[in-house]
């Protein structure tokens, strides 16, 4: 079915509509051989809370963005190559149900579907696309270290590194980009270049910094990209990197929950 849609007018029109919905903030999506397999709203677990995000599944990439106007406009476009994507089930926990992890070298996170059926359909379609692209390119998934799934802010009342420092307006929460824990200023006072996540050095906890430093020394890699930050640095957890978690411009004349409950996976294959 996907092969039949490659050169179809309907597929080209759908991809153009997705591209236009991101406006000038998005990257071009109309590449040769690309097919829009399906789309829908999933609840993404962000740093501060769970938020609705629009997801577009193509035969080679997974694209998602913040919802500005429901089913019409999106921003903060993120593109994950499917050849790197792995899925891992998440058990139901209270009101957080029908979830799974989307794991990749550049970004990893948890999403939740509206129903168990939606979860099953999403995961099946993603896995099929991943398997198909790997087979088509004759490759195996990279063994490169994947990015961590961040621990939500709400799950850390005190620093998860030193186990004693409480968070305040001055001593803010920060995430280690190597292991995903929430830690205080002092415990994330170092940066390291993780090129699959960012072009600039980003925050890591002291334990990960020591581990990465040792690995670099053992492999004779010059640590010219590491840097020290002051403990008084009060920038948010995302540092210099833009993040879809930092602001939420969802506006559709209704509540976020209504949009989520009304969502479904729309398949085109």
UniProtKB/TrEMBL annotation:
Biased composition (Low complexity): 231-240
Ribosomal protein as UniProt keyword: no
Domain of life: Eukaryota
Zinc-finger among keywords: yes
Stretches assigned to the FYVE-type domain: 153-213
InterPro entries according to UniProt: PH-like_dom_sf (IPR011993), PH_domain (IPR001849), PH_domain-containing_F (IPR051765), PH_Phafin (IPR037871), Znf_FYVE (IPR000306), Znf_FYVE-rel (IPR017455), Znf_FYVE_PHD (IPR011011), Znf_RING/FYVE/PHD (IPR013083)
Domain PH residue range list: 35-131
One term of GO molecular function: zinc ion binding
Keywords: Metal-binding, Zinc, Zinc-finger
Swiss-Prot/TrEMBL GO biological process terms: endosome organization; endosome to lysosome transport
Region (Disordered): 223-269
Cellular component aspect of the GO annotation: early endosome
Name of the featured protein: Pleckstrin homology domain-containing family F member 2-like isoform X2
């Amino acid at each position: 079915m996907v092969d039949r849609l490659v050169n179809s007018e309907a597929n080209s029109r759908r991809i153009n509509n997705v591209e236009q919905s991101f406006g000038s903030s998005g990257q071009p999506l109309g590449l040769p051989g690309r097919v829009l397999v399906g789309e829908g709203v999933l609840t993404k677990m962000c740093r501060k809370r769970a938020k609705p995000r629009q997801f577009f599944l193509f035969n080679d990439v997974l694209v998602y963005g913040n919802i500005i106007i429901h089913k019409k406009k999106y921003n903060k476009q993120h593109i994950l190559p499917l050849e790197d994507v792995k899925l891992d089930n998440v058990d139901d926990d209270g009101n957080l149900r029908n979830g799974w992890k989307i794991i990749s070298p550049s970004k990893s996170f948890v999403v939740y579907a509206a129903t168990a059926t939606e979860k099953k359909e999403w995961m099946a379609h993603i896995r099929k696309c991943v398997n198909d692209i790997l087979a088509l390119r004759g490759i195996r998934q990279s063994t490169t270290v994947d990015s961590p799934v961040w621990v939500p802010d709400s799950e850390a009342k005190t620093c998860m590194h030193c186990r004693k420092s409480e968070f305040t307006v001055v001593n803010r929460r920060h995430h280690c980009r190597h292991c995903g824990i929430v830690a205080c200023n002092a415990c994330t006072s170092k940066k390291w270049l993780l090129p699959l996540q960012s072009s600039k050095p980003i925050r890591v906890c002291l334990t990960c910094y020591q581990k990465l430093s040792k690995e670099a020394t053992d492999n004779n890699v010059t640590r010219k990209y590491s840097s020290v930050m002051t403990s008084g640095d009060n920038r948010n957890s995302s540092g210099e990197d833009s993040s879809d978690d930092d602001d939420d411009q969802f506006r559709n004349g209704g509540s976020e929950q209504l949009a989520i409950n009304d969502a479904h996976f729309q398949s085109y294959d």
